[in-house]
Design a protein that fits this description.
The protein starts with a helix and ends with a helix. The protein is elongated. The protein has one domain (2-69). The chain has helices spanning 2-45, 47-69. With 70 residues, it is an all-alpha fold.
């Protein structure tokens, strides 16, 4: 009897947990879509700034990798 109650409690909490996880996943997906949309809009409006930023990040990353190889 106690085992059945514990199994039922675990199943109920598991289904609640699964529902909460699905809600959280959907909320994060929506936030990611908004962020990606904003980033795409920024790149379209500021292509040269984007190229400069990416170039700077690539230069720093290359410098860090090169210094670790020595």
């Amino acid at each position: 009897m106690a085992l059945k109650l514990r199994d039922a409690a675990n199943w109920a909490s598991g289904s609640k947990l699964r529902a909460r996880l699905n809600d959280t996943r959907e909320a994060m997906r929506q936030r990611a879509e908004v962020t990606i949309s904003d980033a795409q809009e920024y790149v379209r409006e500021n292509p040269w700034q984007t190229i400069a930023i990416v170039s700077g990040v690539a230069l720093m990353a290359g410098t860090l990798f090169a210094s670790r190889l020595r």
